[in-house]
Amino acid sequence: MPMYPISLDRAKQIAAEKNLKPGKVRGTTEIEFTRGTSPRVDVIDWPEFQEILEHKNLEIHEGGGFMKLMKKKE
Known about the structure:
- By secondary structure, the protein is of the alpha+beta class.
- Helices cover about 25% and strands about 35% of the residues.
- The protein has one domain.
- The strands form 2 sheets. Strands 1-5-6 form a 3-stranded antiparallel sheet. The chain has a 3-stranded antiparallel sheet with strand order 3-2-4.
């Protein structure tokens, strides 16, 4: 299933539809989408999520209703 890069605004729309929130794995700088129920993942705000995306040179890809964080292609 092909995955395509999407904007942060589109990711926010998908997250809202699927009741997902931006999250950071506790004690790390690893980010992911979360429902906010895992004790290992803290819910963070979108500006912090975007800052980490940019700092780690990541982008959000979507395909078949799934979102995945991937390194930007050079």
